[in-house]
């Protein structure tokens, strides 16, 4: 029973991961909040000059996405660690 259940859970997880590759409608270009903000500023004030320029520009959008994912993973890991430590301390104090 447990093997069968594990198989179906893994199959469902793989189907969820693979679905975006096969579903139609993935032709739109992804734009984040930074891109939309820059476009809104350019539309509202065409001659606007930014106050400063970035120190480093990632070579591609994939690198930007990877760095964002790494930042999210590190933040989630740190948050989980802190919550786990506080929870364990609370249980140990009882």
UniProtKB/TrEMBL annotation:
GO terms for cellular component: plasma membrane. It comes from the Bacteria. It holds the Pfam family CbiN. Pathway: Cofactor biosynthesis; adenosylcobalamin biosynthesis. Keywords: Cell membrane, Cobalamin biosynthesis, Cobalt, Cobalt transport, Ion transport, Membrane, Transmembrane, Transmembrane helix, Transport. It is a multi-pass membrane protein. The chain crosses the membrane at residues 63-84. It is found in: Cell membrane. InterPro entries: CbiN. One of its GO terms (biological process) is cobalamin biosynthetic process. One of its GO terms (molecular function) is cobalt ion transmembrane transporter activity. Part of the energy-coupling factor (ECF) transporter complex CbiMNOQ involved in cobalt import. Forms an energy-coupling factor (ECF) transporter complex composed of an ATP-binding protein (A component, CbiO), a transmembrane protein (T component, CbiQ) and 2 possible substrate-capture proteins (S components, CbiM and CbiN) of unknown stoichimetry. Belongs to the CbiN family. This is Cobalt transport protein CbiN. It comes from Rhodoblastus acidophilus. The lineage of its organism: Bacteria, Pseudomonadati, Pseudomonadota, Alphaproteobacteria, Hyphomicrobiales.
